[in-house]
Specification:
Blueprint: H1 10-14, H2 16-25, E1 31-32, H3 35-39, E2 44-48, H4 50-65, E3 81-86, H5 87-92, H6 99-102, E4 107-109
Parallel strand pairs: 1-2, 3-4
Antiparallel strand pairs: 2-3
Length: about 110
């Protein structure tokens, strides 16, 4: 049975370095919800593009400050996703990432 942990919260953020190092030591691949954790040594991340989320948030603020009623502003969600792969971590784990997967990545970190 494969073991995995799927947690995205403050506990992961505050212990990301420890999680990444323990995963490398035990040769377990990791998947995070934030690209910066992949750059820090995690294997992959897949999440909303936080730059787009910031632009959406700024648009909400602009509409509210311009007098729009909050109840009349449509709910929007980020549609751009970010997929990052850390090639150095993959190599350390002895994983060969298929070219078809590499081609889909927005960022290849090493």
């Amino acid at each position: 049975m494969d073991a995995y942990l799927a947690v995205a919260d403050a506990m992961v953020d505050s212990n990301a370095g420890l999680i990444i190092e323990m995963a490398k030591t035990t040769r377990l691949p990791t998947m995070f919800y934030e690209e910066s954790l992949t750059v820090a040594g995690g294997l992959v991340s897949y999440s909303a593009d936080f730059h787009e989320v910031g632009r959406l948030s700024a648009r909400y603020v602009q509409q509210i400050l311009s007098g729009a009623k909050v109840s009349e502003i449509p709910v929007e969600r980020a549609t751009a996703l970010s997929f990052a792969i850390n090639l150095k971590t993959a190599q350390q784990l002895g994983l060969a990432i298929p070219v078809s997967v590499l081609a889909r990545a927005n960022r290849l970190a090493d």
